[in-house]
Amino acid sequence: MRFSIIIPTYNEQEYIERCLQSIFLQEFDKKEFEVIVSDALSEDETVRLALSHSARVVNTTKRGIAHGRNIGAQNAKGEILLFVDADVTLTPDFLSRIDKAFQSPGTIAVTGKAIPVDGNAFARMVYRSTYLLVNVFHFFGMPLYPGLCVAYRAAAFGKLGGFREDFGVAEDLDLSKRISQLGTCRVDNSARAYVSTRRLQRHAFSTVLFHVYHDLRYLLFGKSARVYPKSEEVRSARDLWKMNRQP
Fold first, then answer.
1. Per-residue pLDDT tens over the stretch 79-112
2. What one-character-per-residue DSSP string does 51-83 give?
3. How many helices and strands, by DSSP H and E, does the chain display?
4. CA separation for the pair 71, 8 (Å, rounded)
5. Which residue(s) pair with 184 in the sheet?
């Protein structure tokens, strides 16, 4: 099997159906990919919707996006692991374009480009700026790929132990940076996905500042936040910071 598409979830009933529909509408041989929903005991209709769309569901009692991705990878059969967030939809040619980028044996990581589909001007600017920086860092030889729509060769992923589960954020940047030592990493801006800006619909400035601070902290000192809750669980602009204070 060529691809295992892994989607970590927790209470994603609002988004998971559109995500799965876009995957099963791919212009790619359906026998050459599987879809794994790695669910952290959702309390809504996420699992039912996933099963109704022919996804395989793997349950885990531990929350955390890094853990969810790793559990999905442990149950995957594909030679390439494609990680997609639940609020992402893929263009019909996404898999074909990623597959083409992996034709070179030395390629071990490929990211597409996520484009915001909702939110205000500030939220859309943040997401567009993120992928502008992805291209800038890539140009200078430092792959720093968001986990929204990124693919890795399963063998290289396993060799490094996957995503760091002690990181609440920057776990995706960390993996792409580490895995770049094993082969070639590529950016394909023509492999497009669409993403919700829901994480910036509340406390946008504080959320952006939180990410910038911890991304810089990772790049400079190799450290990051321990916790990153769902946006619905953040009641005030200070909650993200409070949750990451050392006990």
1. 999 999 999 999 999 999 999 999 999 999 999 9
2. HHTT-EEEE-S---HHHHHHHHHHT---SEEEE
3. 9, 8
4. 9
5. 107
Buried b (16+ CB within 10 A) or exposed e, 174-209: bbbbebbebeebbbbeebbbbbbbbbbeebbebbbe
Q: Where are the domains of the chain?
A: 3-198
Sign of torsion over alpha carbons 136, 6, 226, 202: positive
- pTM of model > 0.85: yes
User: Are 68 and 8 in contact, with CB atoms under 8 Å apart?
Assistant: yes
- Burial code of 67-88, b = ≥16 C-beta within 10 A, e = fewer? bbbbbbbeebebebbbbbbbbb
How many whole angstroms separate alpha carbon 139 and alpha carbon 185? 11
CA–CA distance, 246 with 235 (Å, rounded to integer): 20
Q: How far is CA 79 from CA 22, 83, 152, 246, in A?
A: 21, 13, 9, 39
- Chain segment 209-243, per-residue pLDDT in tens: 999 999 999 999 999 988 887 766 767 767 777 77
Length of the chain: 247
Q: Are 106 and 133 in contact (CB under 8 A)?
A: no
Q: Which fold has domain 3-198?
A: Spore Coat Polysaccharide Biosynthesis Protein SpsA; Chain A (3.90.550)
Q: Nearest-CA neighbor of 147 among 189, 237, 86? A: 86
Separation between Cα atoms, residue 45 and residue 75, nearest integer Å: 22
